Amino acid sequence: MHPMKSDWISRLATCVLALMLTACATPQHMYGWGGYQDKVYEHFKGQGAGPEQQILGLEEDLQRMSGKGMAPPPGYYGHLGLLYLTTGKSDQAAQAWNKEKALFPESTQYMDFLLNNMKKQKG
Amino acid sequence: MRQHRIMLGLALSAVLFATGCAHRPLQSVDYTAFRQAKPRSLLVLPPVNESPDVNASFSMLSQVTFPLAESGYYVMPVTLVAETFKQNGLSNPPEMHAVAPAKLKEIFGADAALYIKIKRYGTTYTVLNSAAIVAAEANLIDLQTGSTLWTGSASASNAENSNNNSGGLGGLLVAAIVKQIINSTTDAAHPVAGITSSRLLSAGHVNGLLYGPRSPKYGLDGQN
User: Hey, is the C-beta of B187 within 8 angstroms of any chain A C-beta?
Assistant: First the structure.
């Protein structure tokens, strides 16, 4: 057998193997998630660190995401706004909900509903 | 000889390659209404729980955003949605599921809503094994028209990959006891619910949801 030919086949085999390994690889995520879903679960169960600690964790994760050039997922700022509201920071809650609206215009009607409710309760 | 072996390897690889990620062409779900409605934003109602575990609904609800958002949909913030229901005097999922679609549309402004029912959530024991199992089904309803756009179901178990026991019957029994302790003392079903949620709500599966507008794969699935 010609040594050159064998070499060529080996190289082709390597290429096929590489293709196989990458073809089914998990795709990149569209969003940075941080600990969002875990925090949502804790919030629902009423366990874990409480709203102040959740806020700190979510804010830290946001910085980490922007460092990696990733956007937070739908609902991230919405949940953050709810936490701000429960800790009496209604200005920050409004900011967070406006941010949700800016990132995801699909949320406009619901965010406006929440913002209006908050205004009514304040005034 | 060597060349033959490499050729054989190549042929095998090709077969593996062709079957490895194959999508079955089988398609029994009718996507006509789904395609016409083109939902962009989804409201996930807190799931109705038919299992004895009181955590099931929140466990599932906290893990639905990932598969849906990564499939290209906007998902109404789940904690805020639950809070809004509560402030309107509704705290049980069956009551929330009974609200008229038009009313949900008026408050949340979502294009469609997902109604999820948890059929199983928790640990099942047999003599030689125990497994945390979560099973759920979902209906996607157009909030404009009230019509059904898609239905699906999925289940997952943490025993799916654990039949590689060695050590004979005694070993099996010990493993079963250890697993029973783990499955009953920790929140073993919660991560399983995450897998169920992904199987149920990720786009790109046979009979699964279509990709949403935010996904780069939007409009490319199920070309028929």
Answer: no
